[in-house]
Amino acid sequence: MKKILFTGGGGAGSEALHRLLNDRYEMHFADADRQAIDPSIPEERRHEIPFANDPAFADRLCGLFRTLDIDLLVPGVDEELLVVAELAEEGRVKALLPPKRFVETHLDKAVSMEQLGELAPKTVPAENAEELGFPCIVKPRRGRGSRGVSVIQSAEKLAAYLTLSEGDAGSCIAQELAIGQEFTVMMAADSVGMLRAVVPVAVGIKRGITLRAETVRDETVEAACRKIHEADPVSGCYNIQLIRQEDGRVLVFEINPRVSTTMCLGVAAGIDPIAILLQNVDGENLLPFAENLQLRRHWVNCFEDGM
Fold first, then answer.
1. What local confidence, expressed as pLDDT, does residue 166 receive?
2. Disulfide-capable partner of 13 in 158, 206, 240, 264 (CB 3.0 to 4.6 Å)?
């Protein structure tokens, strides 16, 4: 049985991933806060690692990879991605992650949008947001989980945002405000970059992470995502976030060069990115998935004896 190690193990999808995949793989989860990992996961499968900015992070992660005899590492935290990509390039780990150059490009939202061209919303440095008109979206060039993302209604509110934002104005971008149905799309390719699965997920409720969502077949969304992959056919699994407007136009507002918290919904729908990467699943067509499968996230309260 292959052994898989997920980082960001305290994330919203870990419990479901363990439940869905534990009969196929020996599943392990690591986090800087081990207690954040869902207690339904056996204690011996929960591991503590340093934060990504800790000098000991790379060696500790590689040590865990060797000690547990892990077959595949699945990083889930943006701050870790470049380190993991470098370790993969050096052959110290095998990771479900696109190449380092892809990671570098899409961690910088300004560079990412420039590469996407006509599929991206109009994007300018935040200090030039008035060129787009108001309202518009302003957000950090680097960031995750909707942190620092705001709808800006006026020049006065833009000035306040830039004053309160960390770093200088050049650390933020502004984008045209796209109105329509939001999608988060799982892209899964094999080890040679052949795209094997596209799973569009219509977002219902989002609070930093997606709380309510549903798998759908949408040819317009699928075509846009295939176009992105054809332009840069990387291996591994990544996530595309986009808006399908009422006129049918698709605007991609973010590419996450890693698995997302909705990976568990893709797995529940029948798509296993791990198997796609490790086994190079045969065939030329995209793999089918279960349509209209809904994700609903709820809080669970755990009580433990502190003694």
1. 63
2. 264
As a whole number, the mean pLDDT across the chain is 94
| β-pair partners for 137 | 151, 175
Which pTM was predicted? 0.94
Query: Which CATH number goes with the domain that contains 187?
Result: 3.30.470.20
Q: Return the sign of the alpha-carbon dihedral for residues 81, 87, 92, 95.
A: positive
Give Cβ neighbours of residue 216 (< 8 Å, ≥ 6 apart): 200, 201, 202, 291, 292
Token pair in block for residue 63: 């040590």
More confident residue, 279 or 136: 136
Q: At what angle do helices 100-107 and 109-116 cross, to 10 degrees?
A: 100
Domain count within the chain: 3
Residue pointed to by tokens 């898989």? 4
CATH of the domain at 70: 3.40.50.20
* Domain interval for residue 163: 122-176
Per-residue pLDDT band at 306 (split at 50, 70, 90) = confident
The DSSP code for 139 is: E
